[in-house]
Amino acid sequence: MNKALKIDFVSDIVCPWCAIGLAGLNTALERIGPEARVELAFHPFELNPGLPAAGQVHLEHITEKYRISADQARINREQIRARAASVGFTMNRDDASLVYNTFDAHRLIVWAGEQHAQAALKAALLKAYFTDGKNIAEHAVLADIAAQCGLDGAEAAQVLASDRFAQEVRDEETLWAQRGINSVPAVVVNDRYLISGGQPPEVFEQQLRAILADEAGA
C-alpha cells in the first residue's frame, strides 16, 4: 500500500530559492511516483511585507537588505540563475528588475485552494515573476494569470478588489511563524519533518524516501 506524504510548502513568490525548491520537490515526487499518495498545499510567507505595490529596483533592494556590494549581488544572482537552470527553471533577472509586494498574490493562492488549483497558480506566478518579469502586485496581471490557469478571471478580479482571504493569509503567516518557520522555502512533511531550503531533486527524494521508511516502521 502506498504511504501518504502530506506536504506543506511555505514560501514567497519573489523568493528565488522557493522557485528552485519547488522545481526540485516536483522532480523528486515524480521519481517517487505511485509509491506515495501526495497531498501538497501552499502557505504564505512574505519576505518583504513593507514593499509598496510599485515595488523596488532589484539591485537596490538586495544591496540594502543584505548589506552586500553590487558586485556580490550580481555574483549571487548568476549563481542562483545557474541553480535554477539545473532544475529546469528560467530566471530572467537583472539589476533593473523590480521586487514586488506579494500579499495580494498570496490571497489569490488561498482562493485557488478552494478551486483545487493552488499548484498550477503557484507555478504560474513564479514563472510570471522570475521568467517573464510581470508585476505580480498588479491586480489585472494576477487575474490574467489566474485565467491562464483555467480559473475564473472575473472572480479572481473580484477577490483582489475586495479584502477576501486577507485575514486567512495573516493567520497562516502567524501560524507558521509560531511553528518556527522564519526562512523559506520550508517544506513540512506529515506535520513532523522539516526540509529547509531550495534543495536539489536528489536531496528531496532521499529525504522523502527516508520519511516514508520512517513512517512505515512507526
Task: Using brief descriptors, characterize the structure shown.
Glutaredoxin, DSBA-like_thioredoxin_dom, Thioredoxin-like_sf, alpha+beta, four-stranded mixed beta sheet, globular, 218 residues, 6 strands, Disulfide bond formation protein DsbA, two-stranded antiparallel sheet, oxidoreductase activity
Secondary structure elements and their pairing?
Elements: E1 3-11, H1 16-32, E2 36-44, E3 56-57, H2 58-66, H3 70-86, E4 98-99, H4 103-114, H5 118-131, H6 139-148, H7 153-161, H8 166-178, E5 186-189, E6 193-196, H9 201-217
Parallel strand pairs: 1-2
Antiparallel strand pairs: 1-5, 3-4, 5-6
In short:
InterPro entries: DSBA-like_thioredoxin_dom, Thioredoxin-like_sf. The chain is an alpha+beta fold and 218 residues long. It contains nine helices and six strands; from the N terminus they run βαββααβαααααββα.
